[in-house]
């Protein structure tokens, strides 16, 4: 019912695969799957913006174009990690209730 597609904001190569992962999910999963696009490792770019290789605006646009939710996180500092899982669960529960 739900999936996270995670890429590294400091490695463009990981983002280059995102569209393929989304297509695979949409092909193999239920039509009503909730997908959140997650840019991880924002802790690294907060201290050194030059490390960012995937602009947030680019990822947000891709999420919009594919009707996905979007968030940036840091697994290292736990920034927004709980929020992502809560959003995913709430979205699934909302879908199931309607």
What distinguishing features does this structure have?
alpha/beta; 3-stranded parallel sheet; Rossmann fold; globular; 98 residues
Task: Annotate the secondary structure layout.
Blueprint: E1 2-8, H1 12-16, H2 18-28, E2 34-40, H3 42-47, H4 56-65, E3 69-72, H5 81-97
Parallel strand pairs: 1-2, 2-3
What is the helix fraction of residues, given as a range? 40-55%
Name of the CATH homologous superfamily:
P-loop containing nucleotide triphosphate hydrolases
Taking all residues together, what is the mean pLDDT? 95
* Whole-number total of structural domains: 1
Description:
This protein has 5 helices and 3 strands. By secondary structure, the chain is α/β, with parallel strands linked by helices. The chain has one domain (2-78): Rossmann fold. The protein has a 3-stranded parallel sheet. The chain is globular and about 45 Å long.
Task: Characterize this entry briefly.
The chain has 98 residues and is α/β, with parallel strands linked by helices. The protein has helices at 12-16, 18-28, 42-47, 56-65, 81-97, and strands at 2-8, 34-40, 69-72.
